[in-house]
Amino acid sequence: MSDDSLRERIDTSKPHSARFWNYFVGGKDNYEVDREIGDQIKSIFPGLVDVAVTSRRFLGRAVDYLAGEQGVRQFLDVGTGLPTADNTHEVAQRVAPDARIVYVDNDPIVLAHANALLTSTPEGRTAYLDADLYDPEAVLKAAAGTLDLSRPVGLMILNTLGHVADYERARDLVRRLMAGLPAGSHLVISDSTATSEGMIAASEAYNASGAVPYYVRPVAEIAGFFDGLELVEPGVVRVPEWRPGAAGAVGPGAVDAYCGVGRKA
Ligand SMILES: C[S@@+](CC[C@H](N)C(=O)[O-])C[C@H]1O[C@@H](n2cnc3c(N)ncnc32)[C@H](O)[C@@H]1O
Q1: Which of 66, 70, 77, 91 could be 154's S-S partner, Cβ–Cβ 3.0 to 4.6 Å?
Q2: Pfam families under this entry (predicted)?
Q3: Measuring CA to CA, how many Å separate 251 from each of 49, 52, 96, 133?
Q4: What's the whole-number mean pLDDT along residues 235-264?
């Protein structure tokens, strides 16, 4: 795709989730429209900044665990978002330089910045797919160009499933992605939860902004994404509390976001 046609696809009239989230993690790849709703939401619910920051730290710990303790060498990161510090391939390849990572997002701004995600080690590989979570079979087929889908994969879906309004549909999409991966694969999810009035108000404000809506779910529904998988200890917990190491919770403990890692037996 030419730079001009890519630029034409970038809609700066409405907030977009990748850019809005980039603003919350302190990035620079966002527009006025994203910062405006971002500032409005920070004033309603400052705790969303903690959710964004601690969720990225969770990504680091989960990938470190999978690459280090579980020997996973392949990752499929769906709903990648804009590149930031410690992207999945950087964390994985620090542990295992031969790790392969496929990133998937459907937002043209992420595609425009994808070069920063393609800085693989010489031993490993990274690829970017401009593809849609709503078509899991197409995602798997394209990912097979880079990953060996007969070997375990870490499927990462972080802060993205809330875009799928219908819970059963979201579960079905996760199930279909996992169905294409072999035993020993892991599902990694984090998501904002409807665990405080502030978070619910923030979600309502975001959804009124014209952006593709984002629905925050009860914790039990986040846990339900792992049905049929073996939940890795400590189970589904608030994101700072997942394997924080000797130091204890990584960041403020009471964030309105939960996470988990499940293994396919
Ligand atoms: C809030 S961001 C999360 C980014 C990153 N995973 C993180 O946790 O920092 C949600 C991402 O999901 C992407 N996304 C939303 N709907 C999608 C879809 N149907 N297919 C692929 N990506 C999608 C958005 O473009 C955005 O980059």
Answers
A1: 66
A2: Methyltransf_19 (PF04672)
A3: 11, 11, 26, 30
A4: 90
- What separation in Å is there between the alpha carbon of 192 and the centre of ligand 1? 13
pLDDT tens, 1-31?
777 888 889 999 999 999 999 999 999 999 9
What the block records as the tokens of 203 is 């979600």
Q: How large is the greatest C-alpha to C-alpha distance in the chain, in angstroms?
A: 50
| Predicted pLDDT of residue 245 | 84
Number of domains in the chain: 1
Going by pLDDT thresholds of 50, 70 and 90, the confidence category of residue 130 is very high
* 133 CA closest ligand 1 atom index: 20
CB atoms within 10 A of CB 174: 25
CA 212 – ligand 1 centroid, Å: 11
Among candidate residues 118, 69, 126, 77, the one with its CA nearest the CA of residue 98: 126
Best mutation site among 9, 10, 16, 17 for ligand 1 pocket (most ligand atoms within 8 Å of CB): 17
Give the CATH number of the domain where residue 197 resides.
Answer: 3.40.50.150
Sign, Cα dihedral of 62, 65, 70, 71: positive
Ligand 1 binding pocket (C-beta < 6 A) is 17-18, 21, 55-56, 79-81, 104-107, 110, 132-134, 158-160, 163
| Ligand 1 centroid from CA 107, angstroms | 8
- C-alpha 178: how far from chain center: 15
The whole-number average pLDDT for the span 130-143 is: 98
Mean pLDDT computed over 209-222: 97
Q: Does the model's pTM come out above 0.90?
A: yes
Domain assignment of residue 78, given as a range: 3-263
Beta bridge partners of 128: 103
